[in-house]
Each structure stands twice: as structure tokens, then as C-alpha cells.
Design brief:
Layout: H1 9-31, H2 42-68, H3 74-95, H4 118-125, H5 128-161, H6 174-185, H7 188-191, H8 195-211
Helix pairs in contact: 1-2, 2-3, 2-5
């Protein structure tokens, strides 16, 4: 089975283990399936869907864990799960899609473009495994929504907490900087002058500095 490149090894092991268990269960069901002269029965088709869905349920659960951890987006989780279901269906009809006399069934489960036929997909969507996947996917979406909301709130709070006087005043221009420097260099008597006379004192001081 082909997995996404970033699907963890331990998750692959869990899916592989379930595939082996499901394969064993299917082989036993096929061996005890009622004989039909004209091919497989509805019973065997249902057993093959179980074989597929058991693996799908484990893969989907592992993918949802990655979503809850923030490793995969909810869109990536859904996309990977559906692709796994498609590939698993292709593999199942090839490796398990025959009765105990070797007569094939399930060959029409995959369309000409490699997609699952709508009739087969509807059967999958009626299963408990599919409903469980939808519940887990919803949980992933809610977790990621809350995480995004919390992150946005943190950013807004950090902006709110910035001291107002830490940012440069928009009204402060070049003259304010010059005035500050000049005031530090003025004699004490000039620096102590009242505010209306201070600008004149600064200009006088700068005029003297220029003439020097």
C-alpha cells in the first residue's frame, strides 16, 4: 500500500496490522460463503467492503491525529483519507476479489478514470467506519478553528499591550529632534526659560553655532 511520504512509520504499522487481520477475516468468510453456481454472492461483496473499511478506519484515525496535532490541515486529512480509500479499493478487488472457486467479482467497483464508482461509494458512506471518520474529521476542524482563534487573540493582545509611548509620535518631526539636542546644550539659564521663549532661545543658539 502506498502512503503519503509524511505519514509516520508507527501509523503505517497500525494500518498494516489491521490489513493483515482484516485479510484473515475475509479469507475465512470466503471459505464459508454459500456456494452459488453463477458467481459470487452479495455476502462476499459485503465482506470485501469490510476488508477495505477496516483498513480505512485505522488510516483515517491516524490521519485525524495528525490533524489534531496541527501537522496536517483538515483539508489534507480528508484528501489523504479519500485517496487511501480509493487505493485500498483498487488493491482489494485485485488481491481479494474472487470467490473460493477463483471467480472474480468487484471488477466494476472502479471507474475508467480510477475513481470509486458512485454505487460503491454510497455503500461505503452507509458504514459505521465512514460515520466515525466524519465525526473525527469534524473534531479536527473544530480543534484547528479554536487554535486559529486563540492565535489571533494572542496577537491582538500583544498589540494591545504595547505601551503607547513606546511608539514614535507622529507629530514629532526633525525640529523636535533638533530642539531636544539643542536644549541639552543650552546654558542652564536658557534651558530653564519658560515655554514661549524656549523656541526663540533654541533658534538663537543654533544661529550662534552656525556662525561659528
Amino acid at each position: 500500500m502506498e502512503y503519503p511520504s509524511d505519514f509516520p512509520p508507527e501509523s503505517r504499522s497500525r494500518v498494516a496490522a489491521e490489513r493483515l487481520r482484516a485479510g484473515k477475516a475475509f479469507d475465512e468468510a470466503r471459505q464459508h460463503a454459500p456456494y452459488r453456481a453463477y458467481g459470487s454472492t452479495v455476502h462476499l461483496e459485503a465482506e470485501l467492503r469490510k476488508y477495505i473499511l477496516r483498513q480505512f478506519a485505522v488510516f483515517a484515525s491516524e490521519a485525524c491525529k495528525l490533524g489534531c496535532q496541527g501537522v496536517w490541515s483538515v483539508e489534507r486529512v480528508e484528501e489523504a483519507a479519500l485517496e487511501f480509500l480509493r487505493l485500498c479499493t483498487i488493491e482489494a478487488r485485485s488481491s481479494k476479489g474472487f470467490d473460493r472457486l477463483g471467480r472474480a467479482f468487484g471488477r466494476d467497483w472502479i471507474g475508467n478514470w480510477g475513481d470509486i464508482q458512485s454505487t460503491v461509494m454510497r455503500e461505503f458512506e452507509r458504514s459505521d467506519e465512514w460515520r466515525q471518520f466524519q465525526e473525527e474529521l469534524l473534531h479536527v476542524a473544530e480543534r484547528q478553528r479554536m487554535r486559529a482563534s486563540d492565535a489571533g487573540g494572542t496577537v491582538r493582545q500583544e498589540i494591545k499591550d504595547v505601551p503607547r509611548d513606546s511608539a514614535p509620535s507622529k507629530s514629532a518631526g526633525p525640529w523636535s529632534e533638533v530642539e531636544g539636542v539643542a536644549a541639552r546644550e543650552l546654558p542652564v539659564s536658557l534651558a530653564a526659560a519658560n515655554k514661549p521663549d524656549r523656541r526663540a532661545a533654541v533658534e538663537a543658539f543654533l544661529g550662534q553655532a552656525t556662525s561659528c
